Amino acid sequence: MRGIRRTAALVGAAALLAVAPGNAHAASPKFSETTAIGTHNAYDKAKYTYFAQALDSGASLLELDVYVDSITHRWRVSHSNPFGNNNNCEAAKSPDELYGKSRNQDLGGCLDNIAAWNRLHPDHPPIVFKVEMKVGFNDRAGLGPDEFDRLVSQKLGGSVYKPADLLGGTYGTLDAAARADAWPARDSLRGKFLFELIPGTVEQANPFDHYWTDEEYGDHLRDLSGAGQLGQAQAFPAVLGAENGDPRAGRYDASIRPWFVFFDGDAATYVNNGYDTSFYAANHYILITTGADGVSPAISSTTPTDAEVASRLALLAKNHASLITSDWSAKPASVLGAVANRG
Predict the structure, then answer these.
(1) May I ask which residue range the UniProt record assigns to the signal sequence (predicted)?
(2) 227-262 pLDDT, tens per residue?
(3) Beta strand 262-266 with 286-290: parallel, antiparallel or unpaired?
(4) Cis amide bond preceding 297, omega within 30
(5) What's the pLDDT tens digit per position in 10-60?
């Protein structure tokens, strides 16, 4: 059986979380109070031969690029081919089939791998799947937010931490729940996955598409909530792009602004420009900072030293990031599994 190793040792300059032996009653920090490391484009076969190895890596965020293939009505996983799959997800639906089956599966196949891996590692720390919808949804073709929810629910069931879980039957919107810091402790999220949705590069470049993934899923959450069916939603839409201040105000209709508590932007833009990122921590929002290697002074995007990764984690934790990402897939789980105190 192939396992994962997630350490919480003190590495370099990063103030990593640790529970000392015999200190069984030490309080686990909330999910909103920590900073962890993710891997960009983890479905890429050049990074991991099989997606199960990406799950083994210790990374707390793994990215998937998804195209809606409106001709065949499939969810394709690929970097640049909207009509085919090019990825490390296998035709594996059970634990004993992992690490050896044919690859290039669709999103359902990737989710099958995640479900099978979860059976091997039911106590794993929480993992965020960042899903870039490359061309957006196509609801008319039966590839909209509701179908996405249905697929994730069918494949992963109760292992997904959903928007309704954050509300907990107490709060009316995600914003209200986040501001009250209703996030659970990291330890209580063991065995759980979270899904973040962002608009894709092709979608953003399409001059005829003015209704992107973030807004469409925000509308979806609002409408489900109004119908008393928020429990069907499986994902958190993210506000994409680093800005100074609250980027929701000038971007979304007031009716959906409270449904965004995930924010996703370039790390160097936040830090090198001196943006006030305390806004995110003060309101207990989840801030994902991409391209962590590009923050000044820049480090390697692929093969930094362990000490450089630890230092970068500490720096971005101080700048209130919840998750930092780069292409550090070659690093061991003792590095990628590190978790720091946020802020």
Answers:
(1) 1-26
(2) 999 999 999 999 999 999 999 998 999 999 999 999
(3) parallel
(4) yes
(5) 333 444 553 333 334 468 999 999 999 999 999 999 999 999 999 999 999
Spatial separation of the C-alpha atoms in residues 186 and 184, rounded to whole Å: 6
Beta-bridge partners for 68: 75
Beta-carbon contacts of residue 239 (< 8 Å; ≥ 6 apart) = 214, 247, 248, 251, 260, 262, 263, 264
Amino acid 38 reads G
Exposure class string for 128-161: b at 16+ Cβ within 10 A, else e = bbbbbbbbbbbeeeebbbbbbbebbbebbeebbb
What average pLDDT does the structure give for the chain?
93
d(C-alpha 333, C-alpha 56), whole Å: 8
Task: Give the CA distances from residue 165 to residues 43, 151, 170, 194, 197, in Å, rounded to whole numbers and listed in that order.
Answer: 27, 19, 10, 11, 17
Can you read off the two tokens belonging to residue 250?
């000038």
As a whole number of angstroms, the distance between CA 309 and CA 306 comes to: 5
Instruction: Give every CB contact of residue 35 below 8 A, 6+ residues apart in sequence.
Output: 313, 316, 317, 321, 322, 323, 324, 339, 340, 341, 342
The distance from CA 99 to its chain's CA centroid, rounded to whole angstroms, is 23
Q: Is the per-residue pLDDT at 164 higher than 80?
A: yes
Q: ∠ CA(166), CA(175), CA(190), 5° rounding?
A: 25
**pLDDT the model gives residue 17:** 52
Helix (H, G, I), strand (E, B) or coil at 275: coil
Please give the average per-residue pLDDT across 298-323, as a whole number.
Answer: 98
| pTM of model > 0.90 | yes
Return d(Cα 58, Cα 338) in angstroms, integer.
Answer: 8
